[in-house]
Write a structure and sequence with these properties.
Elements (H helix, E strand, L loop, with lengths): L1 H56 L3 H22 L8 H9 L7 H16 L7 H17 L3 H4 L5 H15 L2 H10 L6 H23 L18 H31 L4 E6 L5 E6 L5 H7 L1
Antiparallel strand pairs: 1-2
Length: about 300
């Protein structure tokens, strides 16, 4: 009886191992495809922003002065009419889609937020392309996974989502390892490293190679090698002071962003005095989309 059962058990285990290897191969190939698509997207975004920025330098002085306001206006119109009233959030969308399997990152929203990013950053806006790159990669990854066969699509909806986010960060920073680690750490989940590290690394590598093959490998802070001078112990205290100041500044900046999001949904009292000299109070509240309400919640 044992002899008749053992071959069946071995055959079952062998089929399971083959299935695991086949699934791993599929995941790696799909992660590589996600990385390539993300690298192309980030490169296009980078070219568009620099094209607007370089063109602006040749413009008259009055256009330079009004460019930031014009860029914000174009960004607002893009979010309102192309995106249907969506918010300008990027990294928050990645987090929400990661934690909520029913939350979708649509291509229409990707187009609207990309146009808004190009308009605001190209006209001298602050921040950078890391948020749009992460958001674009995660959106492309989710779109690819949603179009896969049901067995793979139901395994984990976050696999290519994380892989795309990692590829986006790796491409824009030209740092593959940084992209993978960043995309795994942002969702605040410790169990990701075991299951999604390989797809994130593969997507980061392919996204990086795609981006640099269309541009160059020059470091973001310049390609010259600066000799490192000898330092003394007192220099360490200066480094500690700089680190503390950067931490305080980053924390203050995060609070300002949170305050701006809360301010955008606050009611504004308006005092109007009519002809009868009787003051009337009205409250003005911006129109919010469901995505904005979910984001603030």
């Amino acid at each position: 009886m044992a002899r008749s059962v053992r071959p069946d058990v071995f055959s079952q285990r062998r089929d399971e191992v083959r299935s695991i290897f086949r699934r791993s191969r599929e995941v790696v190939l799909l992660a590589a495809a996600t990385g390539i698509a993300t690298g192309l997207f980030v490169r296009g975004l980078d070219v568009a922003v620099h094209a607007v920025y370089d063109r602006l330098f040749e413009a008259p002085l009055w256009m330079l002065l009004t460019a930031p306001v014009s860029g914000l206006l174009v960004a607002a119109l893009s979010l309102r009419y192309i995106g249907g009233g969506i918010s300008g959030s990027t990294s928050d969308e990645y987090l929400q889609s990661f934690h909520d399997s029913q939350y979708r990152l649509g291509l229409r929203a990707l187009v609207a937020r990309s146009v808004a990013a190009i308009a605001s950053l190209g006209t001298g806006g602050s921040l950078g392309l890391e948020g749009p790159s992460l958001y674009g990669g995660s959106t492309l990854g989710e779109q690819i996974q949603r179009r896969l066969p049901a067995p793979f699509r139901g395994s984990d909806h976050r696999t290519l989502l994380v892989a795309g986010a990692a590829a986006g960060v790796a491409a824009i920073f030209k740092a593959p390892a940084t992209g993978a680690i960043f995309a795994l750490e942002v969702p605040y989940r410790d169990d990701l490293a075991r299951r999604m590290l390989l797809p994130a690394l593969v997507a980061s590598a392919t996204g990086y190679f795609t981006f640099v093959s269309l541009s160059d490998t020059t470091p973001l802070l310049g390609g010259t090698i600066i000799p490192i001078p000898q330092f003394e112990v007192r220099d360490l205290f200066g480094a500690l002071a700089i680190g503390g100041a950067c931490a305080i500044g980053a924390r203050a900046f995060a609070k300002l962003i949170r305050f701006a999001k809360a301010f955008s949904v606050r009611s504004f009292p308006i005092r109007i005095v009519s002809a009868s000299n009787r003051p009337e109070h009205y409250y003005f509240k911006p129109r919010l989309s469901p995505e904005q309400l979910a984001e603030l919640a």
